[in-house]
Amino acid sequence: MVNKMMSCIGAIALVGSVTLAAAADNASQKFIKEAIEGNLSEIAVGKLAEQKAKNDDVRSFGEMLVKDHTDANQKATSLAGSLGVTPPTEPTRKQKAIYDRLAKLSGDKFDRAFVKAMVEDHKADIREFEKEAKQPNDPAVAFANESLPVLKKHLSTAQSLARGKSAAR
What we know:
The protein is mainly α. It is built from five helices and no strands.
């Protein structure tokens, strides 16, 4: 009787740990999918800034976004493969709507709207990456931790531009 009970307890513990591992994998998969969509969005709006920005510092910030998010996307795509995730090939509908709104603007209006969108976006990204970085036994933790300094630099640059100061390079 005791052996049967111990076997049941062991089986329950095993199922519980497998369930937790599956939940962690699902969370990692969701995170990496969203990270790739975010990178694709940042690359697209960065290219838009390279073309449409009136202010040279805003244009340079767009170049920084394209370079940094292209690098991050290569790493994220590699991680996606190891997690069994098919990498998305385009941003989300919401991200596309932001791009479309920005694409209709020009001059100072574009610069202000772009910088504002980048401040909001990077604040949200940092929250998500910090949350992911704290997950135990999560294969995406290293990617999240490696990405955070770059995202914080982007936020700082966007905030400086929003205040009308030159971008920190």
